[in-house]
Amino acid sequence: MNERFVELQGVNKRFGTHPVLKGFTMTVGRGEIVGLLGPNGSGKTTTIRLINGAIQPDEGAISVAGYDPAHDGEAVRRMSGILTESASFYANMSGLDNLRFFAELYGVTDRRRPDELLEEFGLTTARNQKTGTYSTGMKKRLGLAKALLHKPDLLFLDEPTNGLDPEGIRMVLEYIVQFNRRYGTTMILCSHLLQQLEEVCHRYLFLQEGRVIEAGTLPELQARHCTEVRLEVETDLALGGDRFEGFAARRLSAGKVEFTLPGKAAVPALMRRVTQEANVYGAAMVGHDLESLYFKIRGVAAHE
Asked: Which class for 51: exposed (0-12), middle (13-18), buried (19 or more C-beta within 10 A)?
């Protein structure tokens, strides 16, 4: 991992008598894009509010680039950008005027910055339109532009693609990756759309009932939780006999066969044997994606 940029150690947080975080520990390296995964009520939003200094922990320590958000909240917020699920704007002001207003608040001296971001997110033609007339997708894109005005070192993204059409989703995800690569911005991202997270996150933290129950990159998680591999092969292969002894095989349809293997390392040998006997039109591992891992990890935690 890169240099530690965000660190929480043994953090407890209660609202009244209700514990929300319990001995919560996590680390985010500088320049990482980390996905916080968990059901509603698992502590994701509370974690972000603690890191941003909006609320204080009851116990434990938090550090952001060497700052303690509980005492240096203003410094942390100056270096941070945030996109919530429903970004707020002044409805009677245009998109451009909103960005100019927030740029002044953030101390952005480059007067071209608002126009650059409007162009980046396909809002140039709506720059003089009142934001009260913007669609949900337009407001989401404008919200991300607002969060990026001051080129933050730390970016919080809460459901960044909600309300966007497929083109808008692709635009936002690509820009998140590009911005991270260009500026090395550390990002903490929350979303229930797990397939989208696979395209942008370097690492994942799984939350349940106020604790981190698992963490790692996608390959690390696959190695720990996928003890066998299911491979779906589009082929005209005829099953029968013992030609594929050691590999469980079943026909899914007239042109598709599923093999169960002891691990990913067995895939090349199996495919060589299949291609010697039949045509192969495609192959894909199933059950190794982030969504499948999410349910496996939560299921393991529920039985511990």
From this structure: buried
